[in-house]
# Entry
Amino acid sequence: MTFARRPLQRLVGDASPRTLWLLAILLALLLVAPAILGKYWLSVLILALYFAYVGQAWNILMGFAGQLSLGHALYAGLGGYIAAGLFFHYGIGPWAGVFAAVATAVLAGAIVGYLGFRFSLAGVYFALLTIAFSEFTRLAFDHWEWAGGAGGLFLKVDGGTDIVNLRGGPLLFYYVILALAAFAFILCRALLESRLGRYWLAIREDAEAAQAVGVPVLRCKMIAIVISAALTALAGVWNAFYYNNLFPETAFAVGRSIEITLAPIIGGLGTLFGPVVGAVMLAGLGEAFTDLGETLGIPGIKQIFYGLALLVIVMYRPAGVWPWLAGKLGLAERPK
# Structure
């Protein structure tokens, strides 16, 4: 009996029964949501799940290992372009093309990580390195004819549902991103409960002290960026086939990287529920402010809202919304 409980214990850790009930109810609601919501609110929920997923991916590198990346659009863009290009030119479906997409992003992450960590770049200097690689890649794709160049790459839109080639309506993509978000949550929980996760937290708090007590700092940082890049590449593949188009100036834009970081920052860095809470806030309020901006004729109001949200969080909830909300609701999550 004890042995059978161990996998579950590794997954839920010391989560309270109330938290487990909340997870079960949330999953049940998400599974039946398409039958309840209209097309508009389903699209908002899809966006929230996307931000929750990429937020978890980024949170591994920054929230767990303490390495600031502002160029994560690099991995999403590479993942999307490789999978979409293979499908467009050779008819290779995304379920097969995703392996090449993830491998390319992992290679890029390994190069960025090695150059940054091997030469002890940290903080803003490592962040600038990630931005530089994303910008270099954008310029390269601007002139790469195979990827469509500056004119973009467009995927054919079919009327029916083809799961093999990931062609279909919002309902198909909703369940795919829901599965990805659930997978990322479970994976992050397992990582935090592992020895590697504890090494990451030690590095985040004090890399020199961690090195002094025998933590393999370089190796652990490399694992963090590789895992984060691989997960972000999956989001890029999903994004490419959901929107059916890719442009270098948007796929690798710094603004896209900033969007990836917002959910965990607002929700709570280094927490499991933080990216989820932050994604719901960003998607819901972001859409509301977009509609308000169109009604009032004020362009860019969504970006203004993001800036104000970050300002308020930094000033009044520097640890993020989730730790405060969890305390109010009695949902204990061990501090990370």
